[in-house]
Design a protein that fits this description.
Strand content: under 5%
Strand order of the largest sheet: 1-2
Number of helices: 11
Shape: globular
Length: about 300
C-alpha cells in the first residue's frame, strides 16, 4: 500500500469511471441482492417464530411485562442479526469494488473473502454509529422536562427547536460517517479506527463528499420518482393493476439492489481511494495478519490529496 502524489479526479471523472467499472463488473450487485433476499427471509422467519412463541407465552403466562420483555429482546436480536447480515455483504461489496478498481475484475470469491474478514469490524462500527445517534437524543431532554413541569407553551417551542437540532445532528453524523465501510475494508482497520478515519477524510474533502452525496441521492431520487409514476399508472387499472404493481415493486427492489446501489458503492470507493491517495498493490487479504502500524508508516510515503 502506498500513497501517490497526483491530481485529484473530478466528481465527473469518478461518476464516469465508476459506471464503466460497473459495466465490466455487474457481479458487484450480487452482495446487495443477496443481502436484500436474506434480510427478507430472516425477517419473515423471525416474525413467524415470534408469533408462535408469543402464542405459547399467552397460554402459560398472563404477565404483560414478561410478554413485553420478550418482544423487546426478540426485536433487539432480530435487529442485531440483520445488521450482521448487512455488514457482511457491504464489506463484501466494498471489497469487490476495490478489486474491480485495482485489477479491472472481481468475483464471488472476493465478496466472501472481504465479507468474512471485515464484517465484524463493520458491525461494531455500525453499532457505535447507532449509539452516537441515540446520544443525540440528549437534545430532546429540555422539552421533556418542560412537559413534566406543565410548561406546555415552552415545551412545544423546545420540541420544535430540539427536533430541528436533532435532525441536523443526525444528518451531520451520517455525512461524516459515510466513508466508514470504505475506511474499514480498504485500509484494513478496526471499527473505532474506521470512524476516526471517515471523519478525518470527510472533513478534509467536504466539497467532494457533498457533491457526490448530491449525485448519489439524485440518482436514487430519479429512480424513486420513476417508480412512483409507474405505481400511479398501474394503480388506475382495476384488479390486474395490483398484480402488475406487485411485480413492478419486486423489479424495482432488485433494480435498486442490483444496479443503483452497486454503482453508488463504486463511486464512493473511487472517491475514498482517490482522495486519500491510496493505491492498493500487493496487499494480500488471504492471511489473517494486518500490516503492522510501524510498517504502514514507512509505506505511506507522501501526503494524501485534499479537496
Amino acid at each position: 500500500m502506498k500513497v501517490l502524489r497526483r491530481m485529484a479526479k473530478s466528481i465527473e471523472d469518478i461518476v464516469r469511471e465508476g459506471y464503466d467499472i460497473w459495466r465490466r463488473n455487474m457481479l458487484i450487485g450480487l452482495p446487495f441482492i443477496s443481502s436484500l433476499l436474506l434480510e427478507i427471509l430472516t425477517g419473515a422467519f423471525a416474525l413467524i417464530l415470534m408469533g408462535i412463541i408469543l402464542a405459547s407465552l399467552n397460554i402459560f403466562f398472563n404477565n404483560v411485562l414478561i410478554i413485553i420483555a420478550f418482544l423487546f429482546l426478540s426485536l433487539c436480536l432480530v435487529v442485531i442479526l440483520l445488521n450482521i447480515i448487512k455488514s457482511f455483504f457491504i464489506a463484501g461489496a466494498v471489497g469487490m469494488s476495490k478489486e474491480a478498481i485495482e485489477t479491472g475484475r472481481t468475483s464471488f470469491g472476493d465478496m466472501m473473502k472481504y465479507g468474512k474478514r471485515k464484517f465484524l469490524e463493520l458491525f461494531i462500527a455500525n453499532m457505535l454509529i447507532f449509539a452516537l445517534s441515540l446520544l443525540g437524543g440528549i437534545i430532546l431532554i429540555p422539552s421533556i422536562i418542560a412537559f413534566k413541569l406543565n410548561m406546555f407553551n415552552l415545551a412545544l417551542s423546545l420540541i420544535l427547536v430540539s427536533s430541528l437540532l436533532f435532525g441536523l445532528y443526525l444528518i451531520c453524523l451520517n455525512v461524516v460517517m459515510i466513508l466508514v465501510p470504505f475506511s474499514i475494508v480498504i485500509r484494513d482497520i478496526g471499527g473505532i479506527d474506521g470512524l476516526q478515519d471517515s471523519y478525518s477524510v470527510v472533513m478534509r474533502n467536504k466539497l467532494s463528499v457533498i457533491l457526490l452525496l448530491f449525485v448519489s441521492y439524485g440518482l436514487t431520487w430519479a429512480a424513486e420518482m420513476l417508480s412512483n409514476a409507474m405505481f400511479s399508472f398501474f394503480g388506475i387499472i382495476p384488479i390486474l393493476g395490483a398484480i402488475i404493481s406487485l411485480g413492478f415493486l419486486i423489479f424495482y427492489a432488485l433494480f435498486l439492489a442490483g444496479i443503483i446501489t452497486p454503482i453508488i458503492t463504486i463511486w464512493w470507493t473511487l472517491l475514498y481511494i482517490d482522495r486519500t491517495g491510496i493505491k492498493l498493490e500487493g496487499v494480500s487479504y488471504e492471511t489473517d495478519h494486518k500490516i503492522p502500524e510501524e510498517k504502514l508508516k514507512h509505506i505511506i510515503t507522501s501526503e494524501p490529496i485534499y479537496v
